[in-house]
Amino acid sequence: MAEAASPKKGHLLEVTDLKKHFPIRKGIFSRITGHVFAVDGVSFTIGHGETLGLVGESGCGKSTVGKAILKLLEPTAGEVHLNGKKISDLNQLEMRPHRREMQVIFQDPYSSLNPRMSAGDIVGEPMYNYGLAFGKEKEEKTRQLFAKVGLRAEHMLKYPHEFSGGQRQRLGIARALAVNPSLIIGDEPVSALDVSVQAQVINLMMDLQKEFNLSYLFIAHDLAVVEHISHRVAVMYLGKIVEMTDKRSLFVAPQHPYTEALLSAVPIPSPKMKRKRIILTGDVPSPIRPPPGCRFHTRCPYVMDHCKVAEPPMKEVAPGHFVACHLRQPGQAMYAIAAHATSSARTAGATEH
Amino acid sequence: MVQATQTMTRPDPGSGGAERVLEIENLKTHFFTRDGVVRAVDGVSYHVLKGETLGVVGESGCGKSVSALSVLRLIAKPGRIVQGSIKMSGRNLLDLSDREMRSIRGNDISMIFQEPMTSLNPVLTLGRQIAETIMLHQGLSKKDAWDKSVEMLKLVRIPEAERRVTEYPFQMSGGMRQRVMIAMALSCNPKVLLADEPTTALDVTIQAQILHLMLELKEKLGTAIVLITHDLGVVAETCQRIVVMYAGKKVEEATADELFERPLHPYTVGLMKSVPRLDRAAVEEQARLMEIPGMVPSLKNMPPGCAFAPRCVFATERCRIEEPGFEMKAGGHFAACFNSDKVAETYHG
Fold this sequence. Notes:
The complex is a heterodimer of chains A (353) and B (349). Chain A contains 12 helices and 13 strands. Chain A has 353 residues and is of the alpha/beta class. The relative contact order of chain A is 0.14. Chain A starts with a helix and ends with a helix. In chain A, the strands form 2 sheets. An 8-stranded mixed sheet of chain A has the order 6-7-8-3-9-10-13-12, sandwiched between helices. Chain A has a 4-stranded antiparallel sheet with strand order 2-1-4-5. With 349 residues, chain B is an alpha/beta fold. Chain B is globular. Classes of the chains: A alpha/beta (353), B alpha/beta (349). β11 of chain A pairs antiparallel with β1 (4-7) of chain B.
């Protein structure tokens, strides 16, 4: 990947060893009795006009990563650079001008829109807040944004409850675009939508990316959707990134056993396709007491004794392909494992014909 | 932990002249709200064969869940089943008294829901909840029913079933709770299991576990399953026959192989083309997803003619005036569309 090799200055967003631990308080003195290790050392970069997909199952910390970058949650440790400027230790006031650069779209468009504001006001307010446009100009810009996201001008006078789910999500996108951001963090932006509407919103997001050279951090649990929209994908498990690469390599040759299982678990809408699937046993362990060593060792089909004690570091097994697994060595012939593995999307794709 | 590598094989479709265990005919369930009549289910018919898995697919509001709730006669006011019949072993369930109906729910027909936490009683132990069903329907003693509960939990592969049976729902993870629901639903050996989005709230790796478990138990116990879902991937991997619903009506019905090979209704094609395919991402460049323009019409005031016409690329003048009948287009393949020939011609997998 070009992004991985290019100098750090070229990145729009750079996240280094980001951690977010939530204290657990108990008793009348609210003593801290433990921590939820929601995000425990996550590093990645996003280039200009690039989409990084962040996938993982519920509770893996993917949403917390998004919130910690936006400083909606104060990170416990780690650094976040936006356009080369360190934003992770800014206070709320110093942070304000940078918020214009990063916008967010949430999963449930209904609860993230003020029910008592008209759609036009919802989209216009950020422009006012940042002093970008006022009065007639603001209205005209709002009108243009409505057209961009596929809403009609007369929708400006309506209220959120009068819109359908898909239209509300368009409204959320218009609001995010209102301040010309360079990065949009989408936290499960299409998960609540029906499939036919989901396609409309995905297409819209991809069109807007081309038009405005936007970067996306696309957080979702649906692998197929993430795969479709992203350039690169990071897979998270229990607060850590276990694998990160461009989407094609992730598909053709997943290197981490978790990625492999995750890919094979996604049902494919084609009944003729016979494929082997890896069914993981058990549930995701609690992030309050993550297992020692490799966090995936309790469910890993290839577990070795070493995995139970030593945590595998992130290694670059091929250019731009990062994996945290003891089975993989830097520069190791990378597809050896995929060949012996019982399943992969690659074989699935091949046997269809 | 041990690795379990399995091949998902779907049993062969169309098992001859198998017996129909449940038959719904021309079912109409309407909701009489203050702002008008919502025709949630408007003339739907489908049947399930013995030991078969039938998929009922559609987006939210298409009436797939209401049709299943109608089977159990669990429609609350202002809803009412206004027409149709639901036959099981020669009896029309709609003619039964409330008392007779109670002996059928959970016994002959069981149901599992999307959110297992809301369908389990939070203040009773798992054992008590499962045993209650068994005692009521099978007349077992408390002790025997309890033992059967443990046995059922073992069947759905809950580790340490003897200890777990004394625990409460909040102590379980989402996947475990759904296993408990399945255990409860199957405890009386029902003829039909209605599964309403049973894996939608679960993560993919857990979804794979639950679907696998359901299919395995179906084989073991011979229960017919009606699987209601919006996920085409899930039906493709588990069902033999599929019914596609749109706006309260059935628009297409075929065997799984046939439906995915040669869909005849434009809505079915739209559903298939609008989901990103994991197996294709590796082979093909990032293409645009097909969109179904517009949105589902309000069930309160449906357009005249075909309900899908306003969103359909094939729609003609006729579609907007006349409602297409649900007809057989090929052996065992039914669709409600005037232009199904054109749809078939233009469809490329």
